[in-house]
Design brief:
By secondary structure, the chain is an alpha/beta fold. The chain is about 35% helix and about 20% strand. It is built from 20 helices and 24 strands. Helix 3 crosses helix 4 (about 125-140), helix 8 (about 260-270) packs antiparallel against helix 16 and helix 14 packs antiparallel against helix 15 (about 435-445). The longest helix is centred in the C-terminal third of the chain and has 20 residues, at about 405-425.
């Protein structure tokens, strides 16, 4: 989700790429930098913080001409510091590179390059790639060939741009997963990670696809694949206004972020699953098997959506690690005299890493001797800094107040933690259970495609939303994992549509809520757990008997509730433990579409803020 811009032409290069970069600020970032190439040198200026900090260092460079590129970084490897900011240099300062993505095998490559005498100045995975290009150039004396050679040595996801004194009139770029677009001009051409960056300068756009490699000069753009075979991409004319362009053509950031979830999940898993179908979490490798065994209990603290992710994690961790797990709303935790100590592993979950109540809970847990492992999205945040270990979700910036992709990536990260600890502890060694862990890991890798399939069937949810948008009372019921999802689904609807929505464990229906079921009341019933379907169907029939409207969420192939429900949404059948990542998606869409039909402010709902930094 980093911002990338590039320019080749007669305009002042530095001023142009920074102006383009400013139009990507909505994406969120923690540092920024610019590089401009000439035959004599590549100048790099970069700084931690907002663009204003960088601009303060560029006063003597605004009118510098030449091939230029700029970058805003959303930290993944290494904290948000100036040395970790992009661009990164080769040791001779003749090549500079910017990068969006993750290089999975950077550690092995870093060790190899160090042994050969290359000096590293940052903690990033990106710097490995610029040194690989430098090494390859010394062999081939051709920049394009050197970049191709280097890319063949890396595993992972990337969009990159490169400038060099060796080819100062050329801007090189390549893409495997992260977005890149090219803008055509007259005697000038542009590069960016998103369309809003170039709209002031041109509306003629080429969207690069995975595996594309581009060479950009002021006179033209040459496209090929990574093996140097020519490819072509259709140019299109951007007709959006700038505000719509920020959202990638979507009417709201929430919808854009729902659609980003397959890629966000893939980014969360990337580099953390080995070829042997085991989980590798470098962040936890400092803990020994004995240390994990010494944790007799787990405590989860979080707020809001992150708390709902913790409710899912409680059930999963207890099932796979066979230890008690408590999940507590962070705002209640420090006032509850919690029974934790040195035998407790405390999992702290927060998208921003700055949530005030969660940070206070972390400090209370630490004061009582617990070991802190946090799950956050923002590198260098307060919660990350104060934890013994931090697992980053790598979801990228989330603009909408109502969380979507942050939630599913928190779930994926918590699953990874459970599977990693189970693997370290050798759960089931000699009983076949260790092999079962591989089955868990294998099924985890299927989730991005499953979520993509749900989004592909969004038209069915849209038709349902049209039928329900005039209703005013919603209940969400589930058992087991489905109850945890019901909590989050109800929150999504009330956050953005301002409708009354409540979640209940389905077995509690007859303990009060059933009195409120009548004609016009909508009850969304989740039944994704095979061993609980029959129990759930008894609740469905209770609602139907009182003329309530029933929406049933079931996996493909499940038809036992077809005659009892008014509406059915089928989702891809996945391992039941992982169903929360898939079943929440149609309910995110349903909440969004109902709110849109009611003309509600979706991205910034009334009275709410993205990050709650006061108690």
């Amino acid at each position: 989700m980093c911002g990338i811009t590039g320019y080749v032409g007669e305009r002042p290069g530095v001023r142009t790429v920074v102006d383009m970069l400013r139009r990507l600020e909505y994406r969120g970032y923690d540092s920024a930098g610019v590089a401009v190439a000439s035959t004599d040198a590549v100048q790099v200026i970069k700084a931690a913080g907002k663009l204003a900090v960088l601009e303060g260092q560029l006063q003597d460079h605004w009118e510098t001409t030449g091939t230029a590129m700029a970058h805003t970084r959303w930290a993944t490897h290494g904290g948000p510091t100036t040395p970790n900011a992009h661009p990164h240099y080769s040791n001779d300062e003749c090549i500079a590179l910017i990068h969006n993505g993750i290089i999975e095998n950077y550690q092995e490559l870093r060790a190899e390059l160090r042994d050969e005498g290359f000096v590293f100045h940052s903690d990033t995975d990106t710097e490995v790639l610029v040194h690989l290009i430098d090494r390859a150039f010394k062999q081939s004396r051709n920049m394009e060939q050197a970049i191709r050679m280097a890319l063949k040595q890396v595993r992972g996801a990337y969009s990159i741009a490169v400038v060099s004194t060796h080819a100062p009139d050329h801007l090189f770029c390549a893409k495997t997963a992260s977005p890149l677009i090219l803008g055509r001009g007259d005697g000038e051409n542009f590069l960016a990670s998103d369309i809003p960056a170039i709209m002031r300068y041109t509306r003629r756009v080429l969207v690069l696809e995975d595996g594309d490699f581009a060479v950009i000069t002021r006179d033209g753009i040459t496209l090929s694949d990574l093996e140097a075979n020519p490819v072509s991409r259709t140019e299109f004319q951007v007709t959006w206004d700038e505000q719509t362009a920020e959202k990638g053509g979507y009417p709201h950031f929430m919808l854009k972020e729902i659609h980003e979830q397959p890629r966000a999940l893939a980014d969360t898993l990337r580099g953390r699953i080995t070829d042997k179908e085991t989980v590798r979490l470098l962040e936890l490798e400092g803990f020994s098997r004995e240390q994990f065994a010494g944790f007799t209990r787990f405590q989860i603290v979080a707020c809001g959506t992150a708390y709902h992710a913790g409710v899912v994690a409680k059930r999963f961790l207890e099932s796979i690690l066979r230890r008690p797990v408590e999940v507590t709303v962070a705002s209640e935790f420090r006032y509850s005299d919690p029974l934790i100590g040195t035998d407790t592993l405390c999992l702290v979950i927060s998208q921003s890493g700055e949530t005030a109540d969660t940070l206070a809970a972390l400090r209370e847990a630490r004061r009582r001797g617990a070991t802190i492992v946090s799950v956050v999205n923002v590198v260098g945040s307060s919660i990350a800094r104060e934890s013994d270990a931090t697992i980053y979700t790598q979801a990228g910036p989330e603009i909408c107040v109502a969380s979507t992709k942050a939630y599913v990536t928190q779930l994926a990260t918590l699953y990874l933690i459970g599977l990693y600890i189970a693997g370290v502890e050798g759960r089931g060694e000699g009983t076949g259970e260790a092999n079962n862990l591989q089955g868990y890991v294998r099924d985890l890798t299927l989730l991005p495609d499953a979520v993509e399939a749900v989004i592909g069937n969004a038209l069915l949810v849209e038709e349902l939303a049209e039928q329900l948008s005039e209703r005013s009372v919603f209940f969400y019921l589930g058992r087991g994992y489905d109850y945890a999802v019901a909590l989050e689904a109800a929150l999504k609807l009330k956050e953005i549509s301002y409708l009354h929505a409540e979640a209940y464990a389905a077995g509690e229906l007859k303990h009060g809520p059933l009195a409120l079921i009548e004609q016009g009341v909508v009850t969304v019933c989740l039944a994704t757990q095979p061993h609980l379907v029959e129990k759930m169907l008894s609740n469905v029939k209770e609602v139907a008997a009182r003329e309530g409207t029933v929406v049933l969420i079931v996996p493909e192939g499940e038809h036992r509730g077809d005659e009892s429900a008014d509406y059915i949404l089928r989702i891809p059948a996945v391992r039941p433990d992982f169903s929360p990542i898939v079943s929440i998606v149609p309910l995110q869409l349903l909440a969004y579409l109902i709110a849109r039909a009611r003309n509600c402010e979706i991205d910034q709902p009334r009275n709410l803020a993205k990050s709650v930094t006061v108690e």
